[in-house]
Amino acid sequence: MKTPVVGIIGAANERHCLYVAAEIERNGARPLILDNSPDLPFPLTMAGEGIFYYKEENLNAVGAFYLRALFLPVPAFPTGPIERQLFEEGYRAYARERERYAVWLSWMREEASAGKPFVNAPDAGLWHFVKPYQLNVLRRAGLPVPATLVTGSSEALSEFRRKYRRVVYKPVAGGAHCRLLTEADLAPERLERLSAAPVLFQEYVPGADLRVFVLDGRVIAAFRVEGENGVDYRTGRPNVEPYVADGPIADIAVRACRTLGLVFAGVDLKLAPDGRIALLECNPSPMFEGFDRAAPVTVCSQLAAYLIEKARSGAARASAGGTGR
């Protein structure tokens, strides 16, 4: 029987890619990290219908894929003394990354449409990027999302703050910590910046932070996290403890993933002192290495086992002609 091969889409030096790869290898399968970092020679070749190569390796042998990260094309401006040079080189860098991203996304869609299992699907990563849409989809599904405002208007923010005494804010597309809105944030010079780029504001929900990991429709791990500031547990050194997520908490987490079509996700919730549960967001490519240090059964081991199982079934379908190639 052939050794199952699991493709890991991300970066060869990213710690979660390495962590999952090591666990896959430890369980007798072969990991293949497909590095889509922007500073490397482009490694992917699409040579026709169903003929795909990563460097020199034919990807038909890969039975399943774990989509850890697909780097979005963002403007990159190298340091330089001349403004025109900054603009021109920055645009070229952006154009190059746009082309690379287009090929990676096209290839993943081809693989997925041919029946190769993905965790998660190629488009699922966009749920983190289009967070306002994610929250509205979850809210329409009847899930308990806190009141949310996305705006570049200081007037709209003032009205929202009058309605909700305590408010937190964070970037729309991620990339920075969540913070409590203070009087200093409402100074005129700060509010002027708001008109240039919108911000996501939410009603602050006090209470315990919960991170629930869902895989294939069931909760595989959950943790209670106590941060230093009570707003974003990623700041400082949080205390992480295993948590038994059952009843309504498990139901909300699983329903949220099902609503968004996520096979694997880290679901962030708040458990208020009065028992209220608030669903903050679903992360389609969650970090879990730190949580695993406190886990009775690691997230990584369960994810790797699932990927290996899918790789075996994916390879079997491919050899039987089930992918249409």
Automatic annotation (TrEMBL):
Keywords: ATP-binding, Nucleotide-binding. One of its GO terms (molecular function) is ATP binding. PROSITE patterns: ATP_GRASP. The keyword Protein transport does not apply. Residues 135-308 form the ATP-grasp domain. Gene3D superfamilies: ATP-grasp fold, B domain (3.30.470.20). InterPro entries: ATP-grasp, ATP-grasp_RimK-type. GO terms for cellular component: cytoplasm. Pfam families: RimK. PANTHER family: BETA-CITRYLGLUTAMATE SYNTHASE B-RELATED (PTHR21621:SF0), RIBOSOMAL PROTEIN S6 MODIFICATION PROTEIN (PTHR21621). This is ATP-grasp domain-containing protein.
